[in-house]
Design a protein that fits this description.
Number of strands: 13
CATH class of the largest domain: Alpha Beta
Number of helices: 12
Number of domains: 2
Shape: globular
Distance between the termini: 15 Å
Structural class: alpha/beta
CATH topology of the largest domain: Rossmann fold
Largest sheet: 7 strands, parallel
């Protein structure tokens, strides 16, 4: 039996669940003749690496407790792992222009890698899979050029990983500029449904997802919040005359946002990420702010378009989906995309099938070093 531990999130963001389940599927395919045991660590509270401390979610308090408790007194998901996986998510971010966050200062690297994996754990393979960026929409990666701390962090991370794959071209460029050459492979979330054997069902509705400003952050960009909301509201009123539209919401804030578009709208929300996979199995197509919602729709061979405001939205390029900066998503563009999606998006099922095959082979090739 192989023990595989994931650095991810738990009951926090269903997109992270999709990414992790896709990697689980790929690892099960890699080790078909081996029993695999998967442990999950909530990276925003690294004390969760200790068996029995999964309930402890307060980062500041748990950080102190984890530091003072000797590692030897508890079983530990890093120390006992045969393979350690950093599972998807933004790994590379650097925002000196707004005095914003930097990737070198994340919550998980020091307690999980430097304290456990590097100093105490047996030397087991450390995989950095489906890693991505979270920069301004127009970023070319130059933010990292003058940030020695982020560069040092990335270099140390790369020196420790057995395998690194990235999910967007900006991540590849940032690593290339530091002398690391990695493969861009579509985010592993496109394999999440296969982890549970969930098949496409008869399409019933158009999925809509609305986030204020098109994403989680602003990064000093001049986002036209009201314009995006008003354009989506008019678009929704027009297409809902012909389509059953459902606002799929990944958290309560998005429910509240959807009700700003239409207080009586059809809304889907769940506390179980598997329910989202089943929801997306019945989607005709999607107009989305949530990137991984679009990726799940695509995984069933159905198209979507993405509206966003940071570099993550450009992941869509790797699976053949259109995307746009939120300020440019006017009513004319939305209606054009509706017609494009409704008419099959240039034979998207066939196009995605080829993308999926190549992605699967590329992941298995990357994992072949194990």
């Amino acid at each position: 039996m192989l023990k595989i531990s994931f650095i991810t999130t738990v009951n926090h963001n269903v997109g992270d669940d999709f990414v992790r389940e896709g990697i689980i599927y790929l690892l099960n395919q890699k080790f078909k003749d081996t029993v695999l045991n998967f442990d999950i660590i909530h990276k925003h509270s690294p004390i969760n690496a200790r068996q029995g401390f999964e309930w402890f979610r307060n980062y500041r308090l748990s950080k102190y407790v984890d530091q003072v408790l000797p590692l030897s007194i508890t079983k530990d998901k890093v120390l006992e792992a045969d393979i350690l996986v950093q599972s998807g998510a933004p790994v590379y971010w650097c925002h000196p222009e707004t005095h914003g966050p930097h990737c070198y200062n994340n919550e998980w690297f020091k307690p999980l890698i430097k304290r456990r994996y590097l100093k105490t754990a047996s030397k087991v393979p450390f995989l950095n899979l489906a890693a991505g960026t979270c920069q301004r929409y127009d970023s070319n990666g130059s933010e990292f050029d003058s940030c020695k701390s982020c560069q040092d962090y990335i270099k140390e991370l790369q020196s420790l990983t057995e395998v690194t794959t990235v999910r967007d071209k900006l991540a590849k460029k940032i690593l290339n500029n530091m002398g690391f050459f990695v493969s861009v492979i579509p985010c592993s979330s496109i394999f999440a449904r296969e982890s549970f054997g969930i098949e496409p069902e008869n399409p019933e509705y158009v999925a809509l997802n609305y986030m204020k400003g098109g994403a989680h952050y602003v990064f000093g960009q001049k986002i036209e919040f009201e314009k995006w909301e008003n354009n989506l509201k008019v678009f929704y009123k027009q297409i809902s005359k012909f389509e059953k539209c459902v606002f799929v919401c990944h958290n309560q804030d998005e429910v509240n946002n959807a009700k700003r578009i239409d207080f009586n709208a059809n809304i889907f929300i769940s506390n179980n990420y598997k329910d989202y996979i089943r929801f997306y199995a019945k989607t005709k197509f999607g107009i989305m702010n949530r990137i991984h919602g679009a990726f799940l729709i695509a995984s069933f061979g159905r198209p979507a378009v993405l509206v966003g405001n940071d570099s993550r939205v450009k992941m869509a390029e790797e699976i053949g989906l259109p995307y746009i900066f939120v300020n440019d998503a006017n009513l004319v563009w939305l209606l054009e995309q509706y017609e494009y999606l409704k008419n099959g998006a240039d034979n998207y099922p066939e196009r995605f099938n080829e993308i999926r095959k190549k992605a699967y082979n590329d992941y298995q090739k990357a994992l072949s070093v194990l």
